[in-house]
Amino acid sequence: MQGDLFGNPPGNLPEGFRYQAGIVPRKLQEALLEALPELPFKPFDFHGYEGKRRVVSFGWKYDFDTETVRRIDAIPPLLLPLRQLAADFAGLPAEGLQQALVTEYDVGAPIGWHRDKAVFGDVVGISLLTSCTFRLRRKRAGRWERTSVILEPGSAYLLSGAARSEWEHSIPPVERLRYSVTFRELRSGIGAGGRA
């Protein structure tokens, strides 16, 4: 973990944020990295703008145009051992992590500042293949609080509590190919139309 340009110490992480290296055993990482490139990735689409990263969702898919989620193909068996590891790390039931988003970051692909959509609850991310900087920020009294963590291959992070609801996160352009698998809870009260 590292501080940021504003001098925040590495221990100054948001309430509700957890990080742990070495969650995913090496053999599982190797099996995933062999299988993930074969998934039906599509360029990330945000209101007609295609991002540099490619994504594929399972369980539920968020539609940015309608601002709803809809059921899609179930999380494949390939990802179930990883979901169990993510759930154990986060202290959540595995079946509660109903949505999985697999992202392929090619060289130079970033993800801008954002908060995961409100239809989702806690978020558990798994980093694979190469490391990246995971930045966090929130505005307090007119000033930005910022900090960052280096996500190592095989590591996991949890966004819950204030880290989930008050802080934004982003990843600057990556220097090498990277994969991430993000598991999300679906908030209770989501109806058939995907709205709370």
UniProtKB/TrEMBL annotation:
UniProt-listed GO biological process terms: demethylation
Keyword check for Plastid: no
GO molecular function list: demethylase activity; oxidoreductase activity
Ranges of residues in domain Fe2OG dioxygenase: 96-187
Domain of life: Bacteria
Transferase found in the keyword field: no
Pfam families cross-referenced by the UniProt entry: 2OG-FeII_Oxy_2
Matches recorded under InterPro entries: AlkB-like (IPR027450), AlkB-like_sf (IPR037151), ALKBH4 (IPR032857), Oxoglu/Fe-dep_dioxygenase_dom (IPR005123)
Transmembrane feature ranges: none
Keywords noted in UniProt: Plasmid
Protein's name in the database: Fe2OG dioxygenase domain-containing protein
Native species: Rhizobium meliloti (strain 1021) (Ensifer meliloti)
